[in-house]
Amino acid sequence: MPAPTRSVEASDASRVRDAAAAFDDQVRDLLYRIGVRAAALAAAHAGMLRLLAEFAGLRPSTEADPLFSFDMFAPEELAGVLRVSATTAGGQMGFAFSAVRRLPRAMQALEGGVLDLQRLRSLETAVSPLTDEQTSQVEEQVLAGGPRRNRGAFGAACRRAVLNVDPGGAAERAAERRKGRHVRLYPGDDATSTLSALLPAEDAAACDNQLNQIADEIIRTRDADDQRTRDQIRADTLVDRITGRTPLRPLPCDVQVIVPITALLGLGEEPGEIPGFGPIPADIARDLAMRPTSTWRRMLVDPLGALIEVADRRHPSPAQVRHVRARNRTCVHPGCTRRATRTDTDHTTPYAAGGPTIVVNLGPLCLKHHRLRHHPDRPWIVRQPRPGTFTWTSPLGTRFTVHPHDYITGEEHLPAG
């Protein structure tokens, strides 16, 4: 059989390129239509909330309803229409009435597709203990930053705004909430159950860190017969620790707490923060910092909240890793919420391509997104135009930007202007 001619090879390559381009066009079209539907769904949710709020606000005259029975049976009537329980219907009425009455700008953002229903619920929950005036201030602060890059970041922004607007009340609510700490057992299916604990944030973070450290040690030293997943090891370790089922040597464990110097000195009430959890009242942050076993590490930031440093090594030094993880608190792929402490420190410009080992060329990437970046067929392109700011370009050409953590606002450090 004669070898294929160059023209045949070129024709085959052209067909492959055309097929790939057609597929990419199909993906772009579907993503666009999904975005349109998501905005329409948000607007529909806003319309439903306004109807529910109007229904919740209905009140018949005293003559027509002397026993106020409508208030008692309105959730039952709504439950029949929505095909949910009366308790669920009552909860939806309360949420809608509160959102429409107390969060008018957030409702407009929902109607415009800027927010989704889950983000609005996070905001409404956060402001529930506040006065109307305080609620308006929180709403303004949160909406000024937009929808954030994921729902977790938006929820943290809501909590931080509440701490900024009502630091004293937040500390009182936190103290009261901590009194309700408990452990609950919820029976499940297929011979499993859920064990849940409501704990002070720093205690929960310490438990989670300890489980991670023990799991790391087990994974590093286990033999080939141990095929457990990381989650399975963490679950087994929890049982081992509580019941004493298996003797385990203790491992050191720490919880990072970030406290503004003004709050530490008692000169201000700016909230502190536990990475991976979010903002905490200044009183609690001060208490954690002043405990006998606490150690302090100074972190200098500029007036806009950003960090700075230089070094040149093939493998990032511990100091560089600490800096990068403090600057970018999660994996820098857009939408990823994995904590930086659970990632690798990646060279933005690869070392093999001449990229230096300095913090302005380093960033935290989880294993999944490290692989995504270097995928042989459909790689994502990443650049770091400013320290801690990462621009990603997807295989379809869509561009995303992730910014470093801002230690003044507690959110992403957006460039001026």
Automatic annotation (TrEMBL):
Transmembrane segments: none annotated. Residues 75-327 form the DUF222 domain. CDD domains: HNHc. It comes from the Bacteria. InterPro entries: DUF222, HNH_nuc. This is DUF222 domain-containing protein. It comes from Parafrankia irregularis.
